[in-house]
Amino acid sequence: MEIYGIDHVELYVGDAKQAAFYLAHAFGLQVHGQGGPETGLADQRSLLLRESAVQIVLTSGLASTHPAAAYVQRHGDGVAVVGLEVDNASVAYTELLARGAESVAEPVTYTDGQETTVVIAEVAGFGDVIHRLVERHGPRREFLPGAIQITEPSKGPDEKLFSEIDHLAICVPSGQLKPTVEFYENVFGFLPIFDEYIEVAGQGMESTVVQSPSKHVTFTLIEPDPNRRPGQINDFLSWHAGAGVQHIALRTSDIVEAVSTLKERGVNFLASPSAYYRALPDRVGEVETPIEALEELGILVDRDHWGQLLQIFTESMHVRRTLFLEIIERRGAMTFGSGNIKALYEAKERELQGVEV
Asked: What predicted TM-score, i.e. pTM, was given to this entire model?
C-alpha cells in the first residue's frame, strides 16, 4: 500500500454555496464541479473547489437524515473527510482493515466509460472524521466521474496563490494523543517525526507530528494538558464537540504576495505584537524579506536545521471559532514553526477575548 498524498479534503457545511462563495472570492479557489440528486448523490449538494493541487469539496445535506446535517449540527462547519491518494484503493482498504481500521464504505468504482476510472473506499479516522482512499486513473480533470459533474471554472481572481495542502493540525481530547499516534503508526504506517511539549500562559499541550513514508501526508496531532489551565485546545474540543481538524495549512511560494492579496480581499489574520519582530533577528538570524514588511503583514518566521519557515494564521471564519487556515512558505525548513507557537497562542488569546491589536 502506497499513500502518495492528500487527494482532497471534504468539509460538511451548512450552506455549500455560501461557503464556496467565500473561499472563491477570498482565497481564489475556483468551483470546478458539482454534484447532487441529479448525479446520484441523494439528499446532498456538493461543490468541488480547486487551485493547483488543492482540492476542497463542500457538502451540505439536503435532508435532516444526511450525515452532513448531523455533522454540522454537532460540530458546525468542518473537515469531515480527508481523502488519501493511494496506488490501489481495494488493496489499501483490505490491508487497513487487517491492521485494525474500521470500515465505513467498501470499494466503489466510478468511471466515465472512457479514459477515467476512480476507485474509492472509506475507513474511520479520528473523531467523526473518515479517510477516503482514492485511486485515480486517467485525466486529472475528472474528480468523481458520474457523481461530480465537472464544470468550467467559476470566474474569480486570476492569482494562483497556493500549490498544495502542506499539513493538517488535529486536536484530540486529553489522553488520546498516544493512541491516535499509535493508530497512524500501526494502521497507516505513518512515522512520528517530531514531538514536543508547549507551555504558554499557564496552558500546556502535547504535540506529535506523524507523516506518511512518502512525506506528502502530514498530521500535527495535539492534545491539551489536563493538569494545566484550560486553553485554546480545550476551547476547540468543546466548541467542536470532540476531536477534529483545527486548521488546514496551504503552501505558497510567496507568502508576502499571498497575504497581501488575501488582506485586500478582506481575509482577517491573527496579529502579533511588535516585540515579536524586535526579537526576530536574534532568534532566527537574517531573513530575506524585510522585517518591516513581515511586521506590517503579521507574518511569523521560524528556523530549523534545514532553513526558514514563514507562516500566518487566519482568524476562524466560523461562528464557533473552530476551523481556520494557515498560509505557509517553506524556505528549506522541514518542521512546523514550533518557535512560533507562543506568538500564535498569544494572538489567538487576543482574538478570543476580543482585544484590539
From this structure: 0.93
